Amino acid sequence: MMGCCTARCTLMTICALQMLASVERFVFDMVGFMWTPVLVGVIDIIVILFGMFGIHQYRPKYIYLYGIWHILWIGWNIFIICLYLEAGVLTLEKNGNILSMGTGSDSWWLTHGFGCVVKTRSTTTIVEGTTTVVEDERLSVTGCVLDGRYTEVIHAGVQILLAIVGIIGAILVNVKFAEEEDSFDFIGGFDSNYSSYNSHAQQKESSDVPMQPVYIQRGIH
After folding, report:
1. What sections of the protein cross the membrane (predicted)?
2. Do residues 70 and 50 lie in contact, with contact meaning Cβ atoms separated by under 8 Å?
């Protein structure tokens, strides 16, 4: 059992918080048809599960995978923040299709935030003289308590914070695992030389046992 004051327990708690945050974000990305964040979110959820398994089962390689992925995850979320804040050459109008994979979808939060009122205009298109297509064009979004762009920035910021703490926790846990293995080797837990020494000692001890003659008494007929 893990003590709740150990590095393992702390990292497991961080993973649980990351899982909640990633699943919540994944759901709203799905609703908004933001396919690139959806795919990246699926990878993140899978890696978090690997990390939790590695923590519970003492598998350092899985924890290394967790740490390396979350370095990349930090980079992805920095890109998201820069995109929604339109930092540098990035603009949501020109580069937003990177998130929707060219489908023209927008973040769910841009139009469905608290208090948001969306003004649209319907346009009718006649295809081949028979089919009528009605499309709603979004004109403006007003009244939002918090701009949807800032909501996305907050989501990305929370992910970055959790990822940084998780990477530090992963390093500490793997260092702890290494120390435990070294101390176990010291007392002969995994030391092959120690094991062979024990085997040789047992063989020598058994060979030193004095042999006693065995007499067989034959019956007199």
Report:
1. 35-55, 62-87, 156-175
2. no
